[in-house]
Amino acid sequence: MARAFTALLLGTALISVTSGVTKKSCEEFGRGVSFTSTQAIGTWHLVRLEQSKDPGDAQCVQFSTVGEQERKDLASRIGKVVDVQWEKLALKMQIPCPSGQNNKTRDYYLECLDVPGSYRTLQMPMPSAKLETADFGRHPMRLKMVLDKYLAMMDCYHNFVFVMGKQPHIERVEPELKKLLEDNAANDY
Question: Which CATH architecture has domain 2-188?
């Protein structure tokens, strides 16, 4: 199940840690972060150094708030199978973004942890799946703003960092962002 999360976000925008570059831990990535869940709300697109040949936007992520009724519905549906602090479910993340043409998404709920920008994912299994504890991906994740307009997301399970912007295509990548994408130097965020 965790592979599905990574596979949906993989592409040339993925900043994978390559040889010669020191991997940053989730703790280092999130150190000193001042982040609130509301900063993530909206549609985000993976930032790419090269333009995609794909005319669609499969590398889009949509974040929305989780309301009280949605929490109650989830708790009644899956509460016996998975241990979640329901009052701490703050965000719903859909990959790719739902659209008129393709409404098939992978849905994740993000449970706030004690450190700002720190979450644990609750990956929802396919609706037809038999609900078992193993079906729910529960991995740590970090979110933070970069250069005040990009959202950086670290998948702490796979140690991948994704950088997303509000625009589907960036014509000119700022030098600071380009360096960040090339180096994956979490301390420069």
Answer: Beta Barrel (2.40)
From residue 24, how far is each of 107, 156, 173 by CA, in Å? Answer: 27, 10, 23
Going 55 to 39 to 41 to 37, the CA torsion angle's sign is: positive
H helices of the chain, in order, are 2-9, 26-30, 68-78, 175-183
> Whole-angstrom Cα distance, residue 82 to residue 178?
40
Q: Which of 65, 57, 91 is nearest to 167 (CA)?
A: 57
d(CA 135, CA 126): 9
Let me know: does 141 contact 120? Beta carbons within 8 Å.
yes
Q: In terms of Cα–Cα distance, which of 120, 139, 140, 142 is closest to 33?
A: 142
pLDDT digits 0-9 by tens, 115-135: 899 999 998 876 666 776 556
Quote the CA–CA distance of 141 and 135 in Å, as a whole number: 18
**Which helix (DSSP H) or strand (DSSP E) does residue 157 occupy?**
none
pLDDT in tens, 9-39: 433 233 333 333 455 788 888 888 899 999 9
- Residue in the structure block whose two tokens are 């700022």: 174
Q: Among residues 63, 62, 54, 17, which one has the least CA distance to residue 169?
A: 54
Structure tokens at 100: 């008129």
Domain range summary for the chain, segments of one domain joined by +: 2-188
Distance CA(55)–CA(24), nearest Å, equals: 33
